[in-house]
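Lab channel / #folding
Pinned by the channel admin:
"Please post every new chain as: sequence first, then the structure tokens as a reply. Keep commentary short and put observations after the output so the thread stays searchable."

First post following the new format, from NK:
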Amino acid sequence: MGGDARERVTAASVWFPRAREVELREETVRGPGPGEVRVRAIASGLSHGTEMLVFRGEVPADLALDLPTLAGSYGFPIKFGYASVGRVVEVGAGTNLAPGDHVFVHHPHQQEYVVSAAAAVRLPQRLPPELGVFLANCETALNVVLDAHPRLGEDVVVFGQGVVGLLVTQLLGLAGARVTAVEPIALRRELALRCGADEAVTPEAAPARIAARTNGRGADVVIEASGNARALQAAIDAAAFQGSVIVCSWYGSKPVSLDLGSRFHRARLRLVSSQVSQLDPALAPRWDRQRRFDTALSLLGELVIGPLITHRIPFTRAAEAYELVDQRPEETVQVILTYD
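Reply from TO:
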């Protein structure tokens, strides 16, 4: 049963009323109608890339929202977030989910919410629920590797070892690549090695180490996953003749200045945009979004992801979580909000 006013509850959600401010707003959550489920959150993950751009007001104000669960606008106020894990507490007619199921939903940070059953992905029973918050980033990382087309024995450099970068590093290893991780934060370099990188170096040490590891050729593939616009030039400089530079960072409204007048053209480099909303058209005969999603879901139980959670912060202290990621990123990898 669903939709009855007697079943309505109130729930708090995270909103950004303006740049770098967080507030909790109460809203009414109705009972689920046919084909819908009501979910009570267990954990939700902060995106250290896209979400922090939104938090800082570094996204074009007129950009359209790309998820039906988001609310407001990038011009503020906005309810944002896309990695929520919860427990189904009520179902409408005609759903294939049951109360008690653990599900992942592309939904902002909110205590309870109603979504279509099709939008709630049942998580494997053996998977600790909080690890489900990595599903969106795992799908993004898989898309990056599909765009990069690494070959067995190739040298691949990954700039940035945040959550997406660490997942990319692991997937590249599974594909047989030799991975050099470039990351300024020591904690993340240590995790990169734990996640299978052959070497993890600082940006300052990267040019010499990449040259030494590749006998001066440069990297076959370079992936820019740092979110730092300045790193893109370093990524271009690290690529070998006819190498590929895959850009999965989103810089928002930050300007990007590049030197494309020296070796870029003569080295015949390929600059490729990787964005999770689309797959490489060359893969279309065999891959679609469902296959990619199913693959990402199956990988959650195989990859090193638990150690990537550095902080668990109660939902009611969400403002502290954003301040931590914004002001002290060197202490963090994945910050999650927890719900009673």
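NK: Confidence is low (pLDDT under 50) at residues 1-6.
TO: also worth noting, Helices lie at 50-56, 135-148, 163-174, 186-194, 206-213, 231-238, 289-299, 318-327.
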